[in-house]
Amino acid sequence: MLDLFRRRQRGLKFTLWIVIFALGAGMVLLFVDTPSGVSGNMGSQDVAVVDGKSITALEFRNHYSQIYELYRQVYKLDEQDPAVVKQLGLGQQTLNQLISNYALLSAAERMNFSATPEEIAAYIFALPSFQENGRFIGTERYKQILLANNLTTAQFENSVRQEIIRTKLEKVLTDGLLVSPEEVRQEFANRNQEAKVRYVYFDPAQLAQAEPSDSELKKYYEKNRDSYKTSERRRVKYFTVELDPKAVKVTEEQIKARLSSVPKQEQVRASHILLRSEEGKENPNALKKAEDLLKQLKSGADFAQLAREHSEDPATASKGGDLGFFGRGQMVPEFENVAFSLPAGQISEIVKTPFGYHIIKVTEAGRTDADAQRPVAEFELRQEEANRQALNRANRIAADLKKSGNIEQVGRSHKLPIRESVFFGLGDSIPGLFVRSDFNQQVFVLKKGDVTDPYSTSGAYIVAQLSEINPPHVPSFEEIRVRVLEDHRSEARENAARERAFSFSKDAQASGFDQSAQKAGLSVATTGFFKKGATVDDILKFSPELHDRAFRMSSGEIAPPIQVAGKYVVFQVVEKSELNPQQFEQEKVTIEQELLTQKRAAFLSAYLQNLVDGLRAENKIIINQDLVNSITG
């Protein structure tokens, strides 16, 4: 039922605003206080160490939750297949962003940049989220807002400190970047000038050609035989060692030790009765029924019984409307605001949300004790231990298989079924195997009979043995005669269309566009006005080459043939709109700032990539991938 109430895109929650604030220059700056000079040794609760500074599990988890929430609202992840969500790689994105940020801050520290308490306070006081009627909302409300979003003041103020440092570093790095007047004028033209063209086209698919003889086909095959050479393809037999977190036992001491890294979150337990209405619309009948039920409740009726009989939420009706415990950000705002404001045992008035009309009863008041974090801590411990056990087993299997080379014997010994892949190439995806391209790369350096090291995939490890190799070869003419025939036809049509286009273009330059079209029996199409970067029409679609040429040509000029959407096109510029000098004067400052921002962002992105690459080359980035996987699932 929690999924039912996931907030829709009706404004960004404060946590999302923080993400956007931190993404101001393409880098995320949300993390807890990390004193300088921290040891580079990896701690058990560190997901990574960057240039001697730890990225803790708590910090990573908070950041991952915020990134996930942003994606969830924008892309409606709750409606996606879990495999699709997994493919987004949000955990890796989070880790990469945090690593990038630490790399940047290390560079800033080496250059002696800092932020004073006064600068941090001034920055926070100026943020719109902490202002009311143009004034700071006060320390207590400031703390409450942060607490409601699972942030301490130390965490948030540290993110502000680092944003200030980042801004100072950016300023030093990019102050020398300039935008020329010509660049501004060209960008103004790109945005505002319009063009209209007339054109004819030659479509290879519409040109009939004589069928080639067998001798012509064989000659074509011999001429192009290298293009028919197949790449090397390989096949593996493999074992899958699955993780089994449910079978893992964890101790109370382990759970208590892990709780310190699990963020505390206020939660309430509530029940509800829902009478549905279509989103954005009123439903008088549902509202009247809700009003009648509320009267019954105020007269002493049993909430759970009425929920079982009348609630239109199938997931909770049978449980008397019980939603269980939930935290902030898991319900739509209208529902959340009421649920977190009611004391235990109290029943709300009617609450309207996009799903309909609710009557809410809080059954247990807000809690932030260890019980709320215990399931998370236990899950992570089980996941880590299950991963360790599966990896150990996979290592034993790989060692046995490397020693004996007999996959059937090893399969019997370890009581595992042997699976077999299809033949695949170096760059192919492999049906039935959820692996990345690096798996193919591992397989393609093996000799027949060799065994891979355990390969981590979604919820399992794979141990594979290279079973067959199909070397590159050129199929015989008879094997691929049909393909050769189609290629010959396609090339002949392509050549004919290109030759006709160039012939028309040459004639049009000499005799005029209309006269040449009439002589060739071609229809001339004329577009409407279009801007650079826009779709031209249904035939030409979007063509960067046509745009580039048309906006550099003069009215009446005829372009040589270009390929657009599989056709050969010859066009003439009919008209180009004049640029408005007054409009240019009004917009040039804004355009200059936008271009400068783009230049700075591109420069900083390259600078940051070089920083990270340098730290990796010096082995100053250490990652605990197992811990990352256990947090992100």
What Rg is obtained from the alpha carbons, in whole angstroms? Answer: 33 Å
* Average pLDDT, all residues: 85
CATH topology of the largest domain: Triger factor/SurA peptide-binding fold
CATH architectural category of the largest domain: Orthogonal Bundle
Overall spatial form: extended
Structural class: alpha+beta
Largest sheet: 5 strands, antiparallel
Number of helices: 22
Number of discrete domains: 4
Distance between the termini: 21 Å
Number of strands: 18
Tell me what you see in this structure.
This protein is α+β, with helices and mostly antiparallel strands. 48% of the residues lie in helices and 16% in strands. Strands 5, 14, 15, 16 and 17 form a 5-stranded antiparallel β-sheet that branches. The longest helix is centred in the C-terminal third of the chain and has 37 residues, at 581-617. The chain is extended, with a radius of gyration of 33 Å.
Summary tags:
about 625 residues; alpha+beta; Triger factor/SurA peptide-binding fold; Chitinase A, domain 3; 4 domains; four-stranded antiparallel sheet; 18 strands
